[in-house]
Amino acid sequence: MIELMDVHFSYRPGSELLKGCSLSVSGGEVVALAGPNGSGKSTLLRLSAGVLVPREGEILLDGHPILGWDRVERAKRLAYVPQKSRVPEEWRVHEIAALGDYPYQQSPPARKFLGKRLREVREALSLETVWNRRLKTLSGGEAQRASLARAFVQDTGSMVLDEPAAHLDLSYQMAVYRIFSELAAGGRSILIATHDVNLSRLFGQRLVILNGDGVVKPFPEDRVSQGELLEEAFGLPFVSRELTGVDCWFPDPSPFNKKMTDKKSVLKKD
Amino acid sequence: MNHSEWRALSLSFLAVAVGCAAALSLALPRGNAAEVWRVIRLIRIPETLTALVVGGGLGISGLLFQLVLRNDLADPYVLGVAGGGTFSTVMVILLAGGASAIFGLPVRGAAAFAGGFLTLLFLMRLSRGRPAVLLLGGVVANTAFAAASRLATVLFSPTQLAHVTAYLVGFIPTPPLWVPLVLALPVLYTLLRFWSSGRGLDLLLLSDDEASSLGLAVGRVRKEALTLATLLACMAVSICGMIGFVGLVVPHVAKLLAGHRHRVLVPVSFLVGAAFLLFAQGAGKLFAGALLLPVGVYTSLVGAPVFLYLLVRSARRGWR
Amino acid sequence: MRLSLPGLVVRSSRSGFLLLFLLPVVFISCSHYKNPHKRWTSLSPSITEILFAIGAGPEVGGVCAPADYPAAAAALPVVASWQKVNVEAIVAASPEYCFTIDGMQPPRVLNTLSRLGVKVRSYPMGNLDDLFGCIESVGALTGHGDEADRIVAAMKQRISSARLGLPRDSVDAVIVVGIKPLVVAGRNSFMDDMLRAAAFRNSIAERWGNWPQVSLETVALSKPRIVVYPRGEFPRKDVDVFLANLDKLLDRPVRPLAIDADLLSRPGPRTPLAIEQLCEERKEVEKP
Fold first, then answer.
1. Which residue in B215, B217, B260 is closest to A91 by CB distance?
2. Would you call B30 and C23 a contact, using CB atoms and an 8 Å cutoff?
3. Per the count of CB atoms within 10 A, which of A44, A77, A146, C246 is most buried?
4. What is the pTM of this model?
């Protein structure tokens, strides 16, 4: 379980990025964090994972301050997958996945069923065909799934993932979101950053928006407020369509189309 | 450990055995059994042990430097650590006179470590992570220290010029037997330490965020690896002077043989480094005659072209 | 063919150990050679000449390069040269004494030799008294003391008779031991003492140490009357160019004197020959 309470953070003194964020992800929940570029999504996730120290505010993991946990114990409770994983390209997929076992090797008793866990994860993420291949021979999506495999092998109660569906095609996106829902159903807390405001809600997951003001706002219940919030956060008009009982939101393309036909733009041929 | 890792360990162990045989038995002087045995006992065995321990230590040192600094071209020589260590050793020798020859070993070792460590800190500060600047700074530091060593010799004790010059090239001395045994202690410690925590070293390849979220004390492990690498390099330098390129070439060969897992890379680097220096020592005996070229010449002959090749390859890849 | 892992390890270890077992083969093959047991090793050409002069020649087992005098020395195994020593050959031969002069070998090597059980005696060689003391000491240690004393007496006699009739005052001279780079004999060098014995004054000695490397201007400014150099050591052209340049810088042309290289730079029993030549030259200088 992850809790952030009134967290302030700035990379440079004088320009505060996060101005009092509060967020809580309890067991059995998947929370998706969306927002424009530069709003501080990655920063918020890094704070949640205990990688950064907030200037003000508290961050709790399983009820205790996250930085108070012993390092290895924390690694057994929280897995973090950044946007870009920096694994050297000679490594093979199964070796990358096995990295997730590290915290269990550090303190006894060592986990006995690593092999079984690896097989489970391999099946869940459909990595059978690339299991023995080196990272440099993989596509972006396969590499992304390999990083996810590491986090899954780590087998933690909480997971923080930064844009886990970034390079995945649609079928894998759906598969991954389904896995998140399953993991949550098993009692885990999952916090993900995403650009997609709809997919998580279609899976019954909770959405929060980090707008440009550095504050986290929960996605409202009613349609009008939803539209207002999105427009305020992204600076675009949005339109909604209903799908399986959920209001899905898309940026309104008409202003863009109109602008194209109006101006004599550089993009038009004479 | 998988098949290729076992194979790498076996091959490198074999290479060390061959190297030992070469260094012990090539070009022995003629004589009766007692005379030849005296040479082997008094000269060959300590020299071979020294070459083994120093070569192995330099190999591990190079591996750790390349890992922590994320730079394929790092090694104690290139980074100027050897230069700084040699300069301090030379200063101790010059100022303490003949008395420092063998009995001053702990003092020389400590001075070498101080010199090497300070040089490394200074250069890392200066380069702020830019690899090209770090390497250039190291080469410059080496040249500067070599010149400073020569100048100091001329100023303080000109009769030792040949001795100091030998230090600047790198040679295997004929020390009393306890010298390589003492040097073996930090080497053994490093081997054992990273045998059990080799996985931690692997994690250093990831970004700091990932590594620390997996439970690794990133800063502490990095500092420990860097300190041990500097210690091993400087102890080697305080005995043998600036033997170049061992720390550079050996990790690459080790990775070719054994893959990329540090649990097995550390012992393989030790063995390959030891074999490299043992073969250089054997070549020295074989081609010596009365010439007696110091071993640093042979390691440079092999190492410099390899360094050039790696430099070009690294530049093509954009200094990754 | 996939080898089993334990099998691979065992095979490699076995091969490794097998090679180490080859060592005794090498050992035995090297140790068939019976060294005739010789008592002395010389690490300096000066010492070589001294040993042969006092009659210890047949007992010398190893010499230092260049071993060109006497002729018998050329046949002996070379175990050392300037700054280098074949420690293994010496340890194998285990002489009773290893003689050398200060500065020929680095102290480190001599320390190593003594630590390995070889007795080393290194003699200072800064002046003629050092030379006589060295000959006497070597004679005493090798059991040829009488012969050594005779040699020293003869040398002193020769030098005294060469000095008869020398003018009282000294004339400036310089001894050049290297042209490219220009190196001269300085203060505290043996050659400096040779000059003094022949009523010369080393024009460089005031300011510099043993073997200073100097510039042409420095030599010229010291205004030497004589330039002594080892014959046969440098190409003729270099010597001519050097002397011509020096003449341009001096108001009075300098007198060159070539002395055989071994006589000039190798302190030993033949040194009086060099001093004789220097004394003759000194007597020539004052003649108008």
1. B260
2. no
3. A44
4. 0.82
